[in-house]
Design a protein that fits this description.
The protein is an alpha+beta fold and about 625 residues long. It has helices at about 1-10, 45-55, 80-90, 125-135, 140-155, 160-180, 195-220, 230-235, 245-270, 280-300, 300-305, 310-335, 340-355, 360-365, 370-390, 400-405, 550-560, 565-580, and strands spanning about 95-105, 105-110, 180-185, 415, 435-445, 450-460, 470-475, 490-500, 505, 520-535, 540-545, 590-595, 600-605. The chain is globular.
Length: about 625
């Protein structure tokens, strides 16, 4: 039988063990296929695909997975070659994505960072490729829906930090309408180079289906945006259980009736016969009710994204959570003020605070499994939305169409690996975190002078605070025989300029054992640190952010990343006004030289438009 022959053939194939120089293609030799190829090479032909299909002017540096060591966190087994070091100088630090139609060694999505075109990753980017391939290339609706369901399940049910790492990386690929994403040009992915702009816009549209549902999931489940109206709507839209719609009707009638009785109390008793002793309780209740009512009023746009249309339940939800709180706020104040006794004031206060909570408490009282209902609804909604986009003509999916869907689609947002460590979420047992990091200071007494000395402190936070926002990052790598050509460089100098005006610096230039390069790198924009680890030098440093404050705010909200504190939002708005007055930034990434004190001696910008991909290193 044929399968016996196939089994025998693969059994007799020699086991391939790549050498240190294998498949490492740099700017000096990428114009020709590798000379040493072996039967069974899992990466055979991948270098040619990179050469023919990647047009972002980044010189190629490809590290084989075995070059990183036996595990993803062990020291590298080899160093960069001289040609690769020269190629690295022509590469910026934005993370890019390359998607192939063929699978090489079990992978078909390649992260292209500053350090390599084959960056180690833990997230399931393979499903993104399957989703796009089925929807764009092969037009297999069943396969596309299967990949969509799998991707949504992973994003909504997985660990939060894993989703954040995945979303930040994908956002970097979708930046500027997916300009940072390239595809293999063949019939199984993108048929022609002329179709690249269309493919990128379709990828943005397909991923919009995912991220819009993640946003609704966070609102309904994590931000306590649930109430009986939304639960019943989500439960009945894609099922035949229409009878339970009587429950939101009952809740609406009860809340309106109680509010009407409060208004009639003021109408019949008047508002002039008030007691001075009730003023403190009336004022405190007024302020507390304002705090409770404000979120329900401001969440109306998020609630509308769940309904997506104006209908009976949506109108009832709007009236109960937007109009009734305002009416109760004013009427309730006078009801408490006109109470005849202290205990009556207390009872009136309790009743007034109870009325707006009826629709929020009913789902739990009736035993609804809210999270499961919302997950099923969002899954069905995403599949229906994919059906709506399926037959769109390529010419219909233009930038204006995408901007009308959501102005944040394709917003500029990038992931930056300043050190070469795998892409992954938090792994607390290994000391790896993926959170926004706060940059603050602490003081300690100098052993000699006794005066306070201020040190930099970088610590994780669960949300973005004012101390997380950075407008400029400047860093230099360690040097010496041990670190000059390592594929896992360390940072010996780091300067962080925050949006709030503070400047923090970690400088190891005085340490003769470590040694720090004169050359520095600099990023300007709005960034946050997402991964940080330091020993004698900085081992891990990963950032994400945008070149403008406006794009940063849009991306954080669109991709459902971490929450922003009030102070952080205010800083972003202030910095956005400053950037608008200055105009579009010319150089967002610069390099230069510094002296031992960290003062800039010279600098220049990296103009990728002037770089060549093919040819010798000297040509580049």
């Amino acid at each position: 039988p044929a399968h016996w022959k196939i089994k025998k053939y693969f059994t007799m194939m020699p086991i391939f063990e790549p050498s240190d120089s294998y498949i490492t293609q740099t700017a000096s030799n990428l114009s020709t296929p590798p000379g040493n190829t072996f039967d069974g090479n899992p990466f055979d032909g991948l270098n040619e695909i990179f050469i023919n299909c990647c047009n972002d002017k980044q010189p190629f540096v490809f590290l084989h997975p075995t070059h990183y060591g036996k595990t993803a966190v062990s020291p590298g087994l080899r160093d960069y070659t001289e040609d690769e070091l020269l190629a690295l100088e022509k590469r910026d630090f934005e993370t890019r994505i390359f998607i192939t139609g063929r699978i090489f060694d079990g992978d078909s999505v390649w992260l292209r960072t500053h350090f390599t075109d084959n960056h180690c990753h833990k997230s399931v980017f393979r499903v993104v490729r399957d989703y796009f391939k089925a929807a764009h290339a092969t037009k297999n609706r069943t396969a596309a829906k299967s990949a969509l369901s799998e991707l949504l399940t992973v994003c909504m049910e997985g660990a939060k930090s894993d989703y954040y790492s995945f979303a930040v990386t994908v956002a970097s690929g979708l930046s500027n309408m997916a300009e940072n994403t390239s595809f293999e040009i063949n019939r199984n992915m993108v048929k022609d180079k002329a179709d690249l702009p269309i493919a990128r816009r379709r990828l943005c549209l397909l991923m919009h289906v995912i991220f819009s549902k993640i946003s609704s999931s966070n609102f309904l489940c994590d931000e306590e945006g649930s109430n009986i109206y939304r639960v019943v709507y989500c439960r009945t839209k894609y099922s035949n259980m229409k009878s339970i719609r009587v429950i939101p009707l009952f809740s609406f009638l009860l809340q309106v009736c109680l509010t009407g009785y409060v208004i009639l109390e003021n109408y019949t008793q008047g508002i002039t016969d008030w007691r001075g002793a009730n003023i403190p309780l009336a004022l405190l209740t007024f302020f507390y009710s304002s705090l409770v009512a404000w979120p329900s009023i401001t969440e109306s746009p998020d609630a509308f994204k769940v309904y997506k249309r104006i209908g009976p339940i949506q109108l009832i939800d709007f009236v109960v959570n937007t109009i009734l709180p305002v009416v109760l706020l004013v009427s309730g104040f006078f009801v408490i003020l006109n109470s005849n006794s202290y205990i009556e004031s207390v009872l009136n206060t309790a009743a007034l605070l109870f009325i707006p909570e009826i629709d929020d408490q009913l789902p739990r009282l009736l035993g609804f499994n809210e999270r499961s209902i919302y997950m099923n609804y969002l899954m069905s909604e995403s599949l229906e939305e994919l059906d709506g986009y399926w037959n769109l003509d390529d010419n219909d999916i233009n930038k204006y169409y995408l901007r009308n869907l959501d102005e944040s689609i394709g917003v500029q947002f990038s992931d930056f690996y300043l050190t070469n460590w795998p892409e992954q979420g938090a792994t607390p047992n290994k000391g790896i975190h993926f959170y926004p990091y706060r940059i603050t200071q602490f003081s300690e007494k100098d052993n000699i002078t006794g005066k306070p000395v201020y040190r930099t402190q970088i610590s994780p936070s669960n949300f973005v605070t004012a101390d997380c926002l950075i407008r400029r990052v400047r860093w230099s790598y360690t040097t010496g025989k041990r670190f000059r050509a390592t594929i896992k460089p360390r940072i010996g100098y780091l300067r962080l300029e925050l949006l709030n005006g503070k400047v923090m610096e970690i400088n190891m230039r005085g340490d003769t054992e470590i040694g720090v390069e004169e050359k520095y790198h600099q990023l300007d924009g709005v960034f946050i640190i997402t991964t940080f680890e330091m020993s004698s030098a900085i081992l891990r440093l990963r950032l994400c952010g945008s070149y403008t404050a406006s794009d940063f705010g849009k991306a954080i909200d669109y991709y459902s990343l971490w929450g922003l504190s009030f102070e952080a939002k205010k800083l972003l708005k202030d910095y956005e006004r400053i950037q608008r007055s200055r105009g579009k930034p010319e150089n967002t990434y610069t390099m230069g030289k510094m002296d031992e004190l960290g003062r800039i001696v010279s600098n220049y910008s990296l103009d990728v438009n002037l770089m060549k991909v093919e040819g010798s290193v000297n040509d580049v």
